[in-house]
Amino acid sequence: MRIEIKINQDIKSMKKDVWDLVGPFEKIATWFEGIKKTEIEISDNGNTVRHLTFDNDAIISDELIKKDDFSYTYKIIKGDLPFENYIATIGIKSNDESVSLYCNISIDVSQDNKDESVKFLEDIYENAFKNVQLIFESNSN
To answer: Which residue positions does the secretion signal occupy (predicted)?
Structure first.
């Protein structure tokens, strides 16, 4: 079954500053904890591919498929995960006094793995976004 997962975090900072941190596809390890190594290559079709090695030595490969001024979309092309056909968009939107950092994810998952997969993805992105929030809160003091 195809499911959608949406994660949001408001951050009190300037849109450009937040995007300078989370926007570079190849620099995810600066705000997404648990990544010990990032390798970048260009695929045969000219897209950027990042190979992420996590602290537990798991490796996931992502391919950037679209990039705009304040969002990018990528898909997982390799990794041992309980779901398939992962596509996510990470971006930011301006609010009155802050920005909203978001991640919209689509996956194919079996009913047996649905709850576990949703919780896993929500937890890792909520933690990553809280880390971004903490980075900006500590910089404003």
So the answer is: none
Q: Which domains does the chain have, with CATH numbers?
A: 2-139 (3.30.530.20)
pLDDT one-digit tens code per residue, 96-114 = 778 999 999 999 999 999 9
* Residues 6+ away with beta carbon under 8 Å from 29: 35, 36, 37, 38, 52
Close Cβ partners of 71 (under 8 Å, ≥ 6 residues apart): 89, 90, 91, 92
pLDDT in tens, 9-54: 999 889 999 999 999 999 999 999 999 999 999 999 999 999 999 9
| In the block, residue with structure tokens 């408001």 | 10
Q: Which two tokens stand for residue 87?
A: 């596509």
Q: What is the CA radius of gyration of the chain?
A: 15
